[in-house]
Every structure is written in structure tokens, then in C-alpha cells.
UniProtKB/TrEMBL annotation:
EC number: 6.3.5.2
Subunit structure: Homodimer.
Top class in the EC scheme: ligase
InterPro entries with a match to the protein in the record: Class_I_gatase-like, GATASE, GMP_synth_C, GMP_synth_GATase, GMP_synthase, GMPS_ATP_PPase_dom, NAD/GMP_synthase, Rossmann-like_a/b/a_fold
A Pfam family matched in the record: GATase
Recorded GO MF terms: ATP binding; GMP synthase activity
Reactions catalysed according to its record: XMP + L-glutamine + ATP + H2O = GMP + L-glutamate + AMP + diphosphate + 2 H(+)
GO cellular component, one term: cytosol
Protein known as: GMP synthase [glutamine-hydrolyzing]
Pathway: Purine metabolism; GMP biosynthesis; GMP from XMP (L-Gln route): step 1/1
Length: 512
């Protein structure tokens, strides 16, 4: 396994992704964590991430000296290269030319990282993002790649197996970057690359059994990817000691509640309590138009209902949650005050501490795409594992303004047509999230010989990698007019369809 020391780069997680894609387990730990913790991890190699600081600044972060004395290979990326350089006796300073974006490096000598990818004399595309640069490499290092702005684009100390890259091999804009990282983990560190989802499944099942013993586990199932995969995995480990509680707020997409019941109860034979609480949720949402208010009501009710069902059940000692690795990575960028709340995300599954249950979190070490791979491994249907993200408050924040059962039904129909067309056109997996929104706006239309006066529906589709920023999906107009035609013809209550062409920022993905 590989240890990644984080210096606060925006893309540290991508290093971890590339390492894991090479079949090697890794973890991210802040550069200033206890050395004892790093030692206990016993890595076969260490990667130092990039970061926003400048090595020239007084008090800028340094790797613990242990890193260079542990006798394992080290790869420094960007800031990681800089700090490695100065800690080992080289020199770095602020560069006159700041390089940012695509750049080219010339490969001037061979090195172990290049096997099968780069060769001497080649000019290779990379992604640079740095202000500092090395002015004198540390003793024992040779230069293997150069660029105009970074004469020491890649340096190597073959004897100690230390490498320093000025560019970012972890981002997709460095076309051969993944292979360079793979060479580091496999060829240099000697990792075997046998960390697979099949292996993870077996190891995790053993861990769950050891943790739970003969205890009872409850799990909030929402039909989303994370809770579904967690439930399927835990069920495989402990069978009927697991009970899933599906709090159905009546605000899911068309047919999804039925699918959850069919897949988990009928197909997987999981003990499932399906609590139809739609009357309760819709009742409390009556007359409420403020988005934050809706979220609060739904969040609180969800917990109440879940609590009630688990009390009825009684005897559970453990609560299963689909917590993922990005939720638990400790962040280095604790600098800066609290950020502004744009939307108070209510996540189904987040339960209060007073429930006093011990947590079972079998996905804590996984990234989202790994969770999907595990779900496939466990035999969950593609409609669940490949599903677009869906907000906890569901359609309540896609029916703008007041939510009623009738409006939810209208939106479900429009949304189902939209998704059906997206799937039929083979576009589903190219899109991060696509959905319909029902606007509290009426407009005039004409159908046959009659005048209509009905609601407007907006379609949304974005691409994104993490939901933090998003681009509008560029459909062709023919596709959009086909969807609009079907919705207006087939859904009573909608007579006009628009396409939302706002990216995030300044828009948000959801409308509320
Ligand atoms: P926004 O609308 O903030 O959405 O651009 C970013 C991502 O978060 C999802 N989202 C939510 N998820 N509870 C959730 O669990 C919420 O209240 C919530 N609001 C937005 C949204 O679907 C998108 O994936």
C-alpha cells in the first residue's frame, strides 16, 4: 500500500484515484499528522501531494524527515517536489514564469517511471500548475525531463528511489500520467496490484462479521447507490441480522420505491421495512414554499420516522451507513473561516448521535466509482449502481414552491419521459445528473382547437465530476424538441417545456 501525504492540493484525491486504479490500496493523511501514524501504516511507497504554499515562505509545510529515512520510494508532485528538494539540500525559489495549464516536457534521460510510456527524445504533454521552481536539485539527483518554465520538470535519485515531478501526473490533462503513477507503484515500489473489488468484498465481509458478532444491524435504505451497496454487502456478511428501513417520503422518482422493494426484498431477500410515510411528509409540507424550510421539515421527519421504526423493531446495536472516503479524508485546508451555507444538505442516512448506535461503515475507504464497481460485483442492477445522484429531499425541491401530491405526480411523469428518452439515446452515462423541474408558473398554449393554461416544466442536465461545479449538457435541439413534444402531449398539467442552460456557478444544479 501507498501513503499519500496531503499538502492541501485541490487534486490530492486524484492521486489516490490513480493509485487505486493501478490496483494498489492507498490512504491520504495530512502532512502534519503524527509520524507514528504514518509508520503504523507501513507503506511500500510515499507520494507527496501538491499544495498552495510556496516553499520560499517562512513556515511553509515540510514533510516529516521520517519520509526520507523510511527506506521506501518517494514521489513528490509539484509542491511535494519542492519540499523534497529543499529538505534534501537542493534549492527552490519563486519562478519568474508561472506555468499554469498544458505544457510540454522533453524527456532527456531514461528512468524507471517511464517504462512503456515515455522514451528519451520524446516531447510529452503534461499539466503544470506552479509558481515556485527548483533552481538547484539536491545532491544525488539527475534531471530526466525538462520544460521551458521548469528546467527540472522531473528529477530522479535512482539509488534512493526518490522522484520529483513539477507537473501533475494525476490529472487527465497529463495523458500518460496514470501510467507514470502505475510505474511508480508497481515497478518502483514493487506493489503487486491485487487490490480489487473482489478482494475488498471478501476482506470487508470478514471485518463486518468481526465487528458485529451476533448483534443486530439496522440500515436506512434510500435506493441511492451508497446505501444500496452498503446494505447488499452487509447482508452478504450477516444475513438476517440486518434489517433495512426504507422511509418512503413519497418524493422519489416514478417507480423507484417499487424498485427498492423488489430488488432488496424479493431479489436479495433482505429484511426490509417499507414505511410509506408520504401522507406525513406531504401533510407537513402543505403550504410551505421556502426551500430551506422544506429541507428542514423533511430532514427532521426522516429522522423521526426512522427512529420510530427502529424503536418498533428494537434490539439493534449497530447502524449501517454508506459513508464514503471523501467524507472522511481529513482536510489540510482548514485555513479560512466557515463557508457560506448555500443549501443545507439533508442526507438520508445522517442520523443524530443520541441514537447511541455503533456505526458500521463498510464503504469508508472507497471512492464513489469504487462503490459502483463493488455494487456490480455484488450483483446489484445497473439501474441502481449507475444511477444519477438524487437529493435527500427528493422531488420536494424540484416542485418549486408549494409541494402537493398532484404536483409530485405530474413531475414524476415528466421526469420519467425525460429519463426514458435520455436512456434511449444512450446519453445517461455521459450525464452527471438530469431531471425535470416543475415551475409554479402558468403559460398559455394551444392544443388541437383549444386554449390551454398550464404549468411550465424545465429540463436540466449537467456534467460534473463532484457536483461542486457543473456544465450544461449540450443536447442537440432535435433531442430536446422530441422530449418536449412527448411531455406536453403525454403529461396533463404541463403545456410548455424549457431547457435550463445555466452552468454552476453561478447557478446551482438543483433549482431550490
Ligand atoms: P446544488 O443544487 O447545490 O447541488 O448545485 C449539488 C449536488 O447536491 C445535490 N443536492 C442535495 N443532496 N440533499 C442532498 O442529499 C440536499 O438537500 C441537496 N441539495 C442539492 C444535488 O442534487 C447535486 O447533486
Amino acid at each position: 500500500k501507498i501513503l499519500i501525504l496531503d499538502f492541501g492540493s485541490q487534486v490530492t484525491q486524484l492521486i489516490a484515484r490513480r493509485v487505486r486504479e493501478s490496483g494498489v490500496y492507498c490512504e491520504i493523511i495530512p502532512f502534519n499528522a503524527d509520524v507514528a501514524r504514518m509508520q503504523a501504516f507501513a507503506p511500500k511507497g510515499i507520494i507527496l501531494s501538491g499544495g498552495p504554499a510556496s516553499v520560499a515562505e517562512e513556515g511553509s509545510p515540510r514533510a516529516p524527515q521520517w519520509v526520507f529515512e523510511a527506506g521506501v520510494p518517494v514521489m513528490g508532485i509539484c509542491y511535494g517536489q519542492m519540499t523534497m528538494c529543499v529538505q534534501l539540500g537542493g534549492e527552490a525559489k519563486g519562478a519568474e514564469i508561472r506555468e499554469f495549464g498544458a505544457a510540454y516536457v522533453d524527456v532527456v534521460a531514461d528512468c524507471a517511471l517511464f517504462e512503456g510510456v515515455w522514451s528519451v527524445g520524446a516531447r510529452e504533454k503534461v499539466w503544470m500548475s506552479h509558481g515556485d521552481h527548483i533552481s538547484a536539485p539536491p545532491p544525488g539527483f539527475r534531471t530526466v525531463a525538462v520544460s521551458e518554465g521548469a528546467p527540472y520538470a522531473l528529477i530522479a535519485n535512482d539509488e534512493r528511489r526518490f522522484y520529483g515531478a513539477m507537473f501533475h501526473p494525476e490529472v487527465v490533462h497529463t495523458p500518460h500520467g496514470a501510467q507514470l503513477i502505475r510505474n511508480f507503484t508497481h515497478k518502483v515500489c514493487g506493489c503487486s496490484g491485487n487490490w480489487t473489488m473482489a478482494g475488498f468484498r471478501q476482506a470487508e465481509i470478514a471485518k463486518i462479521r468481526a465487528q458485529v458478532g451476533s448483534g443486530q444491524v439496522i440500515c436506512g435504505l434510500s435506493g441511492g447507490v451508497d446505501s444500496s451497496v452498503a446494505a447488499a454487502l452487509i447482508h452478504e456478511a450477516i444475513g438476517d441480522q440486518l434489517t433495512c428501513i426504507f422511509v418512503d417520503h413519497g418524493l422519489l422518482r416514478a417507480g423507484e420505491a417499487e424498485e427498492v422493494v423488489r430488488v432488496f426484498r424479493d431479489q436479495f431477500n433482505i429484511k426490509l421495512i417499507h414505511r410509506d410515510a408520504s401522507d406525513l411528509f406531504l401533510g407537513q409540507l402543505a403550504g410551505v414554499t421556502d426551500p430551506e424550510q422544506k429541507r428542514k421539515i423533511i430532514g427532521k421527519l426522516f429522522i423521526d420516522v426512522f427512529d420510530e421504526e427502529s424503536q418498533k423493531l428494537g434490539g439493534a446495536e449497530f447502524l449501517a451507513q454508506g459513508t464514503l472516503y471523501p467524507d472522511v479524508i481529513e482536510s489540510v485546508s482548514a485555513i479560512g473561516g466557515p463557508s457560506v451555507t448555500i443549501k443545507s444538505h439533508h442526507n438520508v442516512g445522517g442520523l443524530p448521535a443520541y441514537m447511541k448506535l455503533k456505526l458500521v461503515e463498510p464503504l469508508r475507504e472507497l471512492f464513489k466509482d469504487e462503490v459502483r464497481a463493488l455494487g456490480r460485483e455484488l450483483g446489484l442492477p445497473e439501474t441502481i449502481v449507475g444511477r444519477h445522484p438524487f437529493p435527500g429531499p427528493g422531488l420536494a425541491i424540484r416542485v418549486l414552491g408549494e409541494v402537493t401530491r398532484e404536483k409530485v405526480a405530474v413531475l414524476q411523469k415528466a421526469d420519467a419521459i425525460y429519463l426514458e428518452e435520455i436512456r434511449a439515446a444512450g446519453l445517461y452515462d455521459a450525464i452527471w445528473q438530469a431531471f425535470a423541474v416543475l415551475l409554479p408558473v402558468k403559460s398559455v398554449g394551444v392544443m388541437g382547437d383549444g386554449r390551454t393554461y398550464d404549468n411550465v416544466c424545465a429540463l436540466r442536465a449537467v456534467t460534473s465530476t463532484d457536483g461542486m461545479t457543473a456544465e450544461v449538457y449540450p443536447y442537440d435541439v432535435g433531442f430536446l424538441t422530441r422530449v418536449a413534444g412527448r411531455i406536453v402531449n403525454e403529461v396533463r398539467g404541463i403545456n410548455r417545456v424549457t431547457y435550463d442552460i445555466t452552468s454552476k456557478p453561478p447557478g446551482t444544479i438543483e433549482w431550490e
